[in-house]
Design a protein that fits this description.
By secondary structure, this protein is of the alpha+beta class. The strands form two sheets. The protein has a seven-stranded mixed β-sheet with strand order 4-3-5-9-8-7-6, sandwiched between helices.
Length: about 625
């Protein structure tokens, strides 16, 4: 029975196969032809000498691609995938399938992928439509090394795609124990070529493209590879704005390349008109005979009637897409406004994800948004030296540990910068508490809370790699199957890498405890500032109250003697001496009554002081 939303011929056979159905013969009609020109081949640089500027290839192998052909420029051509001849019915099926693919992709884009199938499968046409607009000129390093030798090369997007497309050219040499593909930048053509070559799991690819500020560092175990997503914290430009983590699938800051516009939904009948108005010799005869067959059959279902009338189901409206874009624009405007208000005495930290793939064959793939690869330069320099642990061990899991250690070291630099800032603010608060200092402390406290949320999962990842690596690898094997009962369980991390991961774990423990300590100091300084302000205000009010108490009897008497009665014996028959004779005794009685608590505290302080001095004198006599 044909599936829903499909077209059938007169015999009931479906003319629209599933999207993942391969073209007969295993050859894609649109398979490209690869040839590697001279200036696009992988060079043979040597760490003991300067790398060569140009190389040629004479055979499709890694060694030949790195050797220089003295006979002159040459190219390595590979077999061309010929496009098979398709009949009218097959062309009709291909066109309808393309229309339906674009419709489904449009629906997913309008709904922000809500309810879509999890994972990103680069073999499906929908992945090209949805992620094909993610483009960036990447810088790619390919390092093959062992304890005795090393080979290094840099290439562009096209060069890597051409290299991976040929099995012989991309094969490692026999001496190479570890291959490290370090990708700076994020581009769909590079990621697609890597995923097809090494069979990366679709869920891991989804995590690569859908990375947002709410994303946590994580580690996932798959049958063929280990996947890690670690958030890198680096000190940014003090005069700039911190970079945030957003999804590359929705045009984020991870890639600065141009974005293609989203496909627009079809109107009624547009998909059918595209076919009907095409080549009449190709589609006209087949479709005309199909219409006559439908008329002879008499009964027609709704899908056949819609096909004959040239109408397709209307795609979703652009209103939801416009609304989502407006909400995203408003959120970014608010973020920019808040970032502008926070400028000043702030630690600028750039947070970006690094994706690491560890394969069983010794291949390590790392992807980072930094296109100049400045973050991983220390690892590259260590691989250039023979006596380093990375070279002598030739352990791919130790390379993953080195990348994790590098990320943690960058986080330590951030923590040290926060320590300096807090010391400076503490000095300002102790000298003269001000509201501007409280503002800076408030911003600093908020940043520390956010960094704790992004840094704490790294500690969990490191602990999981040390403690549960073998258990999680065993969970991938179905022990209920008889064929897997004698399978030896081997984890992805070696024993030596786990030993060095303990040091990374200690550093993460220090970072997290430092963040908690800094957050506590920040809150204490804020509370101290407000307490000092309140204390100063209380002191001012106390002085005013004391002055009021002193002059209260005088004010009372002055009001009495200042009344304008016609006859006042105290005013007419006496001088001002009578005023003072009354005021002074009243002050001597009223003032001690109001100051009695302060007088008691003063006496208590004098008594304690005398007891303390007496104890000191007694100690000195002994």
């Amino acid at each position: 029975m044909p599936r829903e939303n499909s077209f059938s011929d007169s015999e009931g056979r479906s003319l629209t196969p599933d999207l993942d159905e391969e073209v007969s013969g295993g050859i894609s009609p649109t398979s490209p032809t690869y040839s590697i020109p001279q200036n696009q081949l992988l060079p043979e640089p040597s760490f003991n000498s300067a790398p060569k500027e140009s190389t040629e290839a004479s055979a499709p192998s890694m060694s030949s691609l790195r050797k220089k052909d003295r006979t002159g420029p040459s190219t390595a051509s590979f077999p061309t995938a010929t496009r098979p001849e398709l009949g009218p019915r097959d062309r009709f099926r291909a066109s309808v399938r393309k229309v339906m693919t674009m419709r489904r992709s449009t629906t997913l884009l309008l709904n922000n992928n809500v309810g879509a199938e999890p994972g990103v499968d680069p073999r499906r046409a929908t992945a090209d439509i949805q992620y094909g607009g993610i483009k960036q000129d990447c810088v790619i390093e390919l390092v093959d090394y062992s304890s005795t030798n090393v080979s290094y090369g840099r290439m562009t997007n096209k060069e890597l795609v051409n290299l991976l497309s040929d099995k012989n050219a991309s094969a490692r040499q026999t001496w190479a124990k570890v291959r490290w593909i370090n990708i700076g930048g994020l581009s769909w053509d590079v990621v697609k070529a890597i995923s097809l070559k090494y069979d990366i799991h679709p869920l891991a690819l989804e995590d690569v493209f859908h990375t947002r500020s709410q994303t946590r560092s994580k580690v996932d175990y798959y049958n063929k590879h280990l996947f890690l997503r670690i958030l890198c914290h680096e000190l940014g430009d003090p005069n700039g704005e911190p970079k945030t983590v957003e999804s590359a699938a929705y045009g984020s800051t991870l890639t600065d390349g141009p974005r293609s516009s989203s496909p627009l939904p079809f109107e009624d009948g547009e998909g059918y008109e595209m076919i009907e108005k095409g080549d009449k010799s190709t589609f006209g005869s087949s479709f005309g005979s199909r219409k006559s067959n439908l008329r002879h059959r008499g009964g027609r279902n709704k899908k056949e009637k819609d096909l004959e009338e040239g109408s397709l189901k209307r795609a979703p409206s652009l209103f939801s897409l416009t609304q989502n874009v407006n909400l995203l624009q408003q959120r970014r405007e608010e973020e920019v406004s808040i970032a502008a208000l926070k400028k000043g005495e702030r630690v600028v930290v750039d947070v970006s994800p690094m994706h690491i793939f560890l394969f069983r064959d010794g291949t390590v793939i790392s992807m980072h948004s930094n296109s100049d690869l400045t973050l991983t330069q220390p690892i590259t320099r260590r691989l250039q030296q023979r006596d380093t642990m990375l070279r002598t061990s030739a352990d791919p899991s130790l390379l993953v540990q080195s990348l994790l250690d590098l990320i943690v070291d960058k986080a330590l630099e951030v923590i040290d910068e926060y320590h300096l800032k807090i010391k400076r603010f503490e000095r300002q608060v102790l000298l003269r508490p001000e509201v501007s200092t409280v503002r800076n402390l408030h911003i600093l406290s908020g940043d520390l809370i956010l960094h704790k949320r992004t840094l704490e999962p790294i500690k969990t990842v490191v602990y999981g790699l040390r403690r549960y690596d073998l258990d999680r690898a065993a969970a991938l094997v179905d022990q209920s199957l008889p064929a897997n009962k004698d399978v030896k369980i081997v984890g992805f991390m070696s024993h030596k890498s786990k030993i060095y991961l303990a040091d990374v774990y200690d550093h993460m423990e220090y970072i997290l405890t430092s963040i908690e300590m800094f957050a506590g100091i920040t809150e204490n300084l804020i509370n101290y500032t407000f307490n000092m302000t309140s204390y100063e205000m209380n002191e001012v009010m106390r002085r005013l109250t004391l002055a009021t108490i002193v002059f209260l009897p005088l004010t009372l008497l002055t009001g009495y003697f200042g009344m304008n009665f016609k006859f006042m014996w105290s005013v007419e028959n006496n001088s001002d001496v009578l005023f003072w004779e009354i005021a002074i005794p009243v002050m001597l009685v009223v003032i001690p009554m109001f100051l009695m608590p302060d007088l008691k505290r003063m006496l208590h302080y004098i008594e304690k002081r005398m007891v303390s001095q007496k104890a000191v004198k007694s100690y000195k006599r002994l």
